[in-house]
From TrEMBL:
Residue intervals passing through the bilayer: none
Lineage: Eukaryota, Metazoa, Chordata, Craniata, Vertebrata
Binding site residues for ATP: 160-167
Record keywords: ATP-binding, Coiled coil, Cytoplasm, Cytoskeleton, Motor protein, Nucleotide-binding, Phosphoprotein
Family affiliation: Belongs to the TRAFAC class myosin-kinesin ATPase superfamily. Kinesin family.
Gene3D superfamilies hit by this protein: Kinesin motor domain (3.40.850.10)
Protein name according to UniProt: Kinesin-like protein kif20a
Kinesin motor domain segment(s): 64-217
Species annotation: Saguinus oedipus
Classification via PANTHER family: KINESIN FAMILY MEMBER 20B, KINESIN-LIKE PROTEIN KIF11
């Protein structure tokens, strides 16, 4: 079963506006007591030919996952301890170099000819500590929001160790919102004139809506 989103009328979303909502798609099949010998011919997305099935899609036809890295600034408590970020070096917009800290086991092992002291990683784009919430949103999520309003599906998630800044990037603060409040604000701004004027509808469970009376409102 696929869930979609209706596209807004033309002209609702300007180049300066944006919107993002993760969309999910799932498929379920109930075989019951029916046993079929040839299932391939019934699937429109799978070729009945085993030779066609074994063909590997070309790189151009495959959509790549975009992976963004955001390096957070040091916290006040870390600055008080005179910590630094010399171990993290942004080589360019796509390449990050990690250097083992001084007196670390990794660095000593490397001196003994064991392991590596330097590691290089590549991302779709890297954002340094100086990049604010608005700039990060505009450079990463803005175009995805536009795609969602056109009916396309996107999934966005954060990954990182504890205290690495995931919650700040997603939620932010009241004065400096993250990608979630910015996305919601732009979604509603793009739907001006189409919103229900009275708050008398309430979602019920997953797929129903109830009409509230004046006391419930």
């Amino acid at each position: 079963m696929s869930q979609g989103i209706l596209s807004p009328p033309a002209g609702l979303l300007s180049d300066d506006d944006v919107v993002v909502s993760p969309m999910f798609e799932s498929t379920a099949a109930d075989l019951g007591s029916v046993v079929r010998k040839n299932l391939l011919s019934d699937c429109s997305v799978i070729s009945a030919s085993l030779e066609d099935k074994q063909q590997v899609p070309s790189e151009d036809s495959m959509e790549k996952v975009k992976v963004y890295l955001r390096v957070r600034p040091l916290l006040p408590s870390e600055l008080e301890r005179q910590e630094d970020q010399v171990c993290v070096h942004i080589e360019n917009m796509e390449t990050l170099v990690l250097q083992a800290p001084k007196d670390s086991f990794a660095l000593k092992s490397n001196e003994w000819g064991i392991g590596q002291a330097t590691h290089r990683f590549t991302f779709s784009q890297i954002f340094g500590p100086e990049v604010g919430q608005a700039s990060f949103f505009n450079l990463t999520v803005k175009e995805m929001v536009k795609d969602v309003l056109k009916g396309q599906n996107w999934l966005i998630y954060t990954y990182g160790v504890t205290n690495s800044g995931k919650t700040h990037t997603i939620q932010g603060t009241i004065k400096d919102g993250g990608i979630l409040p910015q996305s919601l604000a732009l979604i509603f701004n793009s739907l001006q004139g189409q919103l229900h004027p009275t708050p008398d509808l309430k979602p019920l469970l997953s797929n129903e809506v109830i009409w509230l009376d004046s006391k419930q409102i």
